[in-house]
Design a protein that fits this description.
11 strands, 332 residues, DNA polymerase, domain 1, alpha/beta, binds zinc ion, seven-stranded mixed sheet, two-stranded antiparallel ribbon, globular, TIM Barrel, single chain
Length: 332
């Protein structure tokens, strides 16, 4: 993204964004500017790090291994500029997009942390949809397993068109905070609470649309799957549809009924995408665009959000493959 805040995730969980992802993100502190540098020849020398990258890598390394005695023994640097410990021998693995049962994941925050730890993750961002309620439990578990938590949240927003070349679509913005959390917690929490209220309205609308489509799905069933106090999402509706035998699997539920703009699709109280980016910046967070490969019009969205203060974009999809590469250089 031009200014050294790229987000390089490598989620190899499910192919659905909403399902827990429990794998690795291999980098932090890299920069899209590296694309402007000369292409590496095959078998050629490793690209030299800039002074800023070395400094950033050192800070990250020291932070990740603060509790160990070997913070100064780092000896090698990976492609993304993150130093590896001789003692640990692995890369510093980041997972920057994960969901727990506090939104539509399948694991409790503590079990998610344990799973991440087992998979070699050293830094985990918990980014539940529109809530940070799982963060305290994740922090406690992370302490036990000696890994770092980045307090995060994935905010539901709508991109509103300005010109004819743009179209309305849902956009998810990831927010990352320091270990101190948001600087204006009340303001952030009020916005998130409003969006969560909208998720109930939205899920009820989806159920009634399905009922109108002659699918006798019950709201209570969706609410039961979401769990007590958890704002429902499309994945909860899809799971209820599968359980009730109306569709064969989650993919079918989304492909036939729940996809963006689909016959049972509905919106709630989402923020405008730019408002969410500004909110994240105002509350001391780092804003990153989630799964841009799912967007109808990613260029327009990224341009507009970059102007609003967006720091980075997610670049790997759930199967671990790079999802989006720019064919031409973009001028943000
Ligand atoms: Zn998402």
């Amino acid at each position: 993204m031009g200014d050294g805040c790229s987000l390089n995730s490598n989620n190899n969980g499910s192919d659905n964004d909403n399902i827990n992802k429990s794998c690795s993100i291999n980098a932090i502190g890299g920069s899209m500017t590296k694309k402007k540098t000369k292409k590496k020849k095959s078998g050629g020398k490793r690209k030299k790090m800039t002074v800023e990258q070395i400094l950033a890598a050192r800070y990250v390394n020291e932070w990740v291994f603060l509790d160990s005695n070997s913070a100064s023994t780092a000896s090698s640097v990976d492609d993304f500029g993150v130093q590896s410990h001789t003692k640990f021998s692995d890369k510093v693995v980041f997972e920057l997009h994960s969901h727990s049962i506090c939104s539509d994941g399948f694991l409790s925050p503590s079990v998610l942390v344990e799973r991440a730890h087992r998979n070699g993750v050293k830094v985990l961002a918990l980014t539940d949809h529109d809530t940070m309620s799982g963060i305290p439990e994740a922090l406690e578990a992370a302490h036990k397993f000696g890994i770092r938590i980045i307090p995060g949240v994935e905010i539901s927003t709508i991109f509103s068109p300005r010109g004819e070349s743009e179209s309305e679509e849902p956009v998810h913005i990831l927010a990352y905070y320091s270990s101190c959390g948001p600087t204006k917690l009340e303001e952030l929490e009020n916005c998130l609470a409003n969006i969560r209220d909208g998720r109930y309205i939205r899920a009820k609308n989806i159920v009634s649309k399905l009922n109108n489509l002659k699918m006798p799905l019950k709201w209570e069933h969706v609410a039961r799957i979401a769990g007590n106090g958890v704002a429902p999402g499309r994945l909860h509706v899809a799971r209820a549809m599968v359980e009730a035998g109306h569709v064969e699997n989650l993919k079918q539920a989304f492909n036939r009924y729940l996809y963006d703009g689909g016959p049972a699709y509905s919106t709630g109280n989402e923020l405008l995408a730019e408002e969410a980016v500004e909110l994240i910046c105002r509350t001391g967070g780092v804003a990153a665009l989630a799964h841009p490969w799912a967007l109808k019009n990613p260029v327009a969205v990224i341009r507009r959000l970059k102007d609003a203060g967006l720091h980075g974009i997610e670049v790997y999809r759930s199967d671990g493959k790079l999802a989006m590469t720019w064919q031409t250089p973009m001028n943000f």
